[in-house]
Amino acid sequence: MKSENMKSEIMKSESVPSEWSALLALQRATHATLQVLAAELVDLDLTPSEINALANLADGRGRTVSELGVAVGTRPTTLTSVLDRLERRGHITRGTRPGDRRAVLIELTASGRVAAATIRQAITDLEHRALQGLSDDAIAGLRAALQALTEVSS
């Protein structure tokens, strides 16, 4: 039994890089959380990108494609195919912004509001489960680090 524990510890230490990378850890965490969310939201039949877009629209405030692109962390051109799928499924509408006919305004439909609320609840529940053992200071540090990584300019 003792040798099995030692073997397990050796394997763990060999699989951990000597230099820890916040970016690689963030990528692993992203993939892990997306897998959990996909499993919990399987009945919605949405891709991770669609889940992300709806989650960012869950507050009910319409956004332009550019604003939503910033919120979801992708270029508007990349977002277009996601919005096409969500619109075909009846979750969003695209219209014009009052006072600016050039700006396309993305808004949730009734079914989109239901899906977005379900997604936000799943995200909230997952965050609570994942972070419940951390102190308020640790969570504040995590938020600060994520904000800093978000604001990195190329």
Would you give an account of this structure?
The chain is mainly α and 154 residues long. 66% of the residues lie in helices and 11% in strands. It has helices spanning 2-15, 22-40, 48-57, 65-72, 76-88, 110-131, 136-150, and strands at 63-64, 92-97, 100-108. Strands 1-3-2 form a 3-stranded antiparallel beta sheet. Helix 3 packs across helix 6 (110-131) and helix 4 (65-72) packs across helix 5. The chain is globular, with a radius of gyration of 20 Å. Mean pLDDT is 87; it is low at 1-13.
The secondary structure category is: mainly alpha
Low-confidence spans? 1-13
Principal-axes geometry comes out as: globular
Strand content: 5-15%
Q: Strand-and-helix sequence, N→C? A: HHHEHHEEHH
Q: Return the average pLDDT rounded to an integer.
A: 87
Task: Tell me how many strands there are.
Answer: 3
Major sheet summary line: 3 strands, antiparallel
Q: What is the number of helical segments per DSSP (H or I, 4+ residues)?
A: 7
Instruction: Please tell me how large the radius of gyration is.
Output: 20 Å
Q: Helix fraction?
A: 55-70%
Indicate the topology.
Blueprint: H1 2-15, H2 22-40, H3 48-57, E1 63-64, H4 65-72, H5 76-88, E2 92-97, E3 100-108, H6 110-131, H7 136-150
Any descriptors?
154 residues; single chain; disordered N terminus; 7 helices; mainly alpha; 3-stranded antiparallel sheet; globular
